[in-house]
Amino acid sequence: MTRSPLHATRASVGGAWCLALGAVPICSGHPALLVAVLAAEVIIAFAAGLGPELRATARWGVPFAVVVMAINVLVSRNGATVLFRGPYLPWVGQVDFTFEALVYGAVLGLRILAIFGSAIFLAAAVDTDELLRALRRVSLRSGVTAALALRLFGVLKRDAGRLADAQRCLPDGGASRLQVLHAVTTGALDRATDVAATLEVRGFGAGGRPPRMPRPWSRHDLAFTCSAIVLVGIAAGVVAGLWGEFEAYPRLYAPLNAATAGAIAVLMLSAVLPFADRRGI
Across the strands, what pairs with 98? Predict the structure, then answer.
């Protein structure tokens, strides 16, 4: 069911938009820009009906980001502002916990969460089948391999669940490792034979590319294309040093000047505005 303009957008445009959104946290380390990306992703997720997916990712993504921050504080010895001194270790020396290491660890955590957010949209709102068809027109073997990997992942996961249920139902701790290996290997060979036969019947052995299916561009396609161009421009501006300057070591430097504030405003508007047009959704 189409739940948002992103769902209604063609897969190539939707995928490019998700990659452009993810490029901003990859290129930027400014805390304000990263918070803006996360805020935009939260708004977009609820506008696109992806709140459950966002909450499911946050349940493990936030602890993961906290662990990354803690590791950076414990490992990094850079920074001039010492919060407190730790013990002296013979093989390391004086262990100092610095403010700059704490901030940079938080930046790494925010960056990870922002990248996870863009990946949610790519996985849940972009038509995977259409995206793989486009890939098959570029490289047939790569497209078929990616399609099979995506399809077989769920199948193998269900097989593993059924095998685990069968193990629990058997007495004396279940079957031996050799019996489990035999069952898994036999099932994999049978499934590989079935997949090969299906591909041959559908003509994949001929090596021809699938036909191009013309589709007129919609207003959603144009809106997300323009948004992706703006997002890529923001990421390029960060790389060029036009805005979003950030240095963690030796002293924290993250000015919130007019250029950075303007980039944040443009980022929020360009990311959220395509979801405002819900006509025909």
Answer: 82
**How far, in Å, CA of 87 to CA of 5, rounded?**
55
């990859």: which residue's tokens? 26
The full length of the chain comes to 281
Closest by alpha carbon to 126, among 34, 220, 233, 58?
Answer: 220
- Please say whether the beta carbons of 222 and 17 come within 8 A: no
Alpha-carbon gap, residue 2 to 81, rounded angstroms? 51
Angle, helix 11-27 to helix 31-47, in steps of 10 degrees:
150
Residue range 85-106: mean pLDDT, rounded: 82
CA–CA separation, 49 and 3 (whole Å):
6
CB 169: neighbour CB atoms within 10 A? 8
Residue with tokens 């803690």: 70
Instruction: Output the six-digit token pair for 52.
Output: 């459950």
Q: Which of 43-47, 61-65, 113-117, 120-124 shows the lowest mean pLDDT across its residues?
A: 120-124
Residue 91 has, within 13 A of its CA and on its CB side, a CA count of 0
Q: How far apart are CA 261 and CA 219, in angstroms?
A: 29
> Does 1 have pLDDT greater than 50?
no
Task: Please name the residue that has the structure tokens 């936030």.
Answer: 62
pTM above 0.70, yes or no: yes
Number of continuous H segments (helices) and E segments (strands) in the chain: 10, 2
